[in-house]
Amino acid sequence: MATEGQHAARRVELVEVSPRDGIQNEKVVLSTDDKLELMRRIHTAGLRRAEATSFVSPKRVPQMADAEAVMAGALAEPGHASLIGLVLNQAGFDRARAARCDEINVVVVASETFSRKNQGAGITDMVAAASAILAQSRKAGIKASVTIAAAFGCPFEGEVPAAKVLGLVESLLPARPDEIAFADTIGCGVPTQVRELLAGTQALDAGMPLRCHFHNTRSTALANVLAAVEAGVHALDSSIGGFGGCPFAPAATGNVATEDVVYLLERMGISTGVDLQMLIDTAGWLGDRLGHPPMSGLARAGRFPAAA
Length: 308
Prior knowledge:
The chain is an alpha/beta fold. It has 13 helices and eight strands. It has helices spanning 4-8, 18-22, 32-44, 67-75, 90-98, 112-119, 123-140, 162-172, 191-204, 221-230, 258-267, 276-290, 297-301; strands spanning 13-16, 49-54, 82-87, 103-109, 143-149, 179-184, 210-214, 235-238. Strand 5 (143-149), helix 8 and strand 6 form a beta-alpha-beta unit.
């Protein structure tokens, strides 16, 4: 386990996912202007990577129907964050490349049933598709990560063995992703799983940058964040206000809140470079537009010590 001194020397990168995962399951569809205002607030708060949108069917996810307009508007902002477009297939990648995304994130699901429900194809086909997309990204000079979804458990099949997830990692490594992320899509994961998956991947490729994506459905997200940091993860996904969820996974409620993660890490002496008060203010702003309050602890209780 890392010591306090080791923590103090570290910096953990946060990837803000509220513009995509944070709002994709909300009943209120944010306007393009509100999405761009959210992106401006994200950058002003000091967050330097953001999942701006997803290039998926607007019939299945109407909240993302304006993906190209959001990307164009965000790219027009001076000094914008590195903008990530999530893609599920070749058509999505073609749209993301045309929209000039700074990065793309391709998803492979660790459960056969969920893969077919979420992406309309089995795991073997999705690994092949992801590998092809990663190759095209590399040729085009676009940074590309792969997220293994449902890596900690499936809403349809239940437990997902770590060996199965690590087998997926091994099958994806030849495609040379710039980063691999593990997603707790339904918020069922616990720290022992986090440590096992990260250690297993480090054993396969010690130099692979690793990222984690946690949901707080069962109140384990911050415990998992701590486990990931202590296991050497270099980046964490989070969503301002704790908003978020997957439209195709039953009871997949909110992401871990960015402000809660920043509070935890900064109090531990781990730098994030993010303005905590601006995150709290933005959580309230976003809650007003979505019609319900943010779910984060900081939004309810405020920072400690209280701001001067």
